[in-house]
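Hi L., both proteins are below.
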Amino acid sequence: MGIPCIMSKRALQADKDESRESLAKGLPVVSLSIGDSAEFLYGDAWDAKKAEKVILDSGDVLIFGGKSRLIFHGVASVIRNTAPRFLANETAVRPGRLNLTFRQL
């Protein structure tokens, strides 16, 4: 039996809509995951089949900048019911995944 997932509607993307100055400096993107785990894909091409994969769990921080700043990336799926129990028991966080992304434009 596999892990139940919600498939994302987003394809891999690269952050090329930021200011030229920000991109030229290679300023990092900082991403904080809260809630359910997610399958995060990244690579040198738009093709998700060629991408590397990492699982981001609640509390994980992902930072990419410098030469890797323009990598293709995206969430392929969210893995249901993987959030730490205290989030539901002690907070008002709803089931699912919350991602906070910080960048300097």
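That was the first. Here is the second:
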Amino acid sequence: MTFQTGHVGLNVSDLDRSRDFYLKIFDFEVLFESGEADRRYAFLGLDGTLVLTLWQQSEGRFATGLPGLHHLSFQVPDIETVRRAEDAIREAGATLHHGGVVAHREGASSGGVFFEDPDGIRLEIYAPTGAEGSPVPVTAAPTCGFF
């Protein structure tokens, strides 16, 4: 058998706020959005391909201290794309961890930005190369593991 990730579904507390956030940061397009007041959801994607589904069926903030999702990571082709995402993250006023672009570990060429969506869901946008010389906030473990 061969497996590949299809799409990721996230519970959100405010569909409009989350949809707008993901559209701004990731440049997704809305593929479909429910108009039913009691069943709000949106399908977001790129070039017609579904990437992320948002389901308005939660309250509060993401509980990082409980078992479940650690973070959701998106790979981009180059570090310049990561830096553009960092600018959008800052402009959106989102929580940005580690102060900006960081390497995945000491001596790594891969790296990215670590941040939170409006519900506190931890996210990463990274490039496989180009982060050489970027800070490494956690020297004893992978950067993406502890934020």
